[in-house]
Specification:
- The chain is an alpha+beta fold.
- It is 14% helix and 35% strand.
- It has one domain: Pseudouridine synthase (2-Layer Sandwich).
- It contains three helices and eleven strands; from the N terminus they run ββαββαβββββαββ.
- Strands 1, 2, 3, 4, 5, 6, 7, 8, 9, 10 and 11 form an eleven-stranded mixed beta sheet that branches.
- A hairpin with a 6-residue loop joins strand 10 and strand 11.
- It starts with 7 loop residues before the first strand and ends in a 15-residue tail after the last strand.
């Protein structure tokens, strides 16, 4: 589906944030499916009458089965500055995840070392550093329960591939629908119950606080947790 005004969560002369649907890929991959960055380029080209396309830089990524806030840069200057913001960990990322197993502790910090197998697109966690591993850290807290499902808010300090998915699974709480990391069955929609809820940072050009928020998907299940 093409990007429309309804999908735009934030926009100024430098940045644009849209609501990513579960199943969208952020950038081109081996599937050949049209990526989200191309969809946003088309949206901007039409909106601002730029027949030769518009510049769009990918600032960060979300896994294909994940929904929520995704941010792009509209200028090369903004891309460079936002890359620095993410590299220096000057952005607060908040995710919501639904799990079936109640966490043993209502809140905590998880630290692991991850190694990714690019051929299988699977990440393996370790409790101590091993050769070739990357350190990852997140904090979490249990914020709600509904019909035997538990809602967890996650604040990752690092931004490793599949980090939240594999760390929650290692804790004994695989994300609903994420059969790659321990949930008994996958979703027929190709989605998992992990949502990029909020991005907060200081605008790299305006030097003003930016707080971008995405509502939960309206899929008959997720939106039941909206008011937690």
């Amino acid at each position: 589906m093409p990007v429309t005004d309804k999908d735009v969560l934030y926009e100024d002369n430098h940045l644009i944030a849209v609501k990513k649907r579960a199943g969208d890929i952020v950038q081109i991959d081996e599937t050949g499916d049209e990526p989200l960055d191309e969809q946003v380029k088309k949206y901007l080209a039409i909106k601002y009458n730029k027949p030769n396309s518009a510049f769009l830089g990918v600032v960060h990524r979300l896994d294909r089965p994940v929904s929520g806030v995704i941010l792009f840069a509209k200028t090369s200057k903004a891309l460079e500055r936002m890359n620095a913001v993410f590299k220096n960990r000057e952005v607060k990322k908040t995710y919501w995840a639904v799990v079936r197993n109640k966490p043993a502790k209502p809140s905590g910090t998880l630290i692991h070392w991850l190694i990714k197998n690019p051929q299988k697109n699977v990440v393996t966690p370790y409790n101590t550093e091993v050769p070739g591993s990357q350190r990852c850290e997140l904090s979490y807290k249990l914020i709600g329960e509904l019909d035997g499902y538990y809602l967890i808010e996650v604040d990752p300090l690092t931004g490793r591939s599949h980090q939240i998915r594999v760390q929650l699974s290692t804790m004994g709480c695989p994300i609903v629908g994420d059969n790659k990391y321990g949930y008994p069955r996958g979703s027929r929609k190709g989605s998992i119950c992990l949502h990029a809820r909020r991005l907060q940072f200081i605008h790299p050009v305006k030097k003003e606080p930016v707080n971008i928020f995405a509502k939960l998907p309206g899929d008959g299940f997720w939106e039941k947790f909206e008011n937690f």
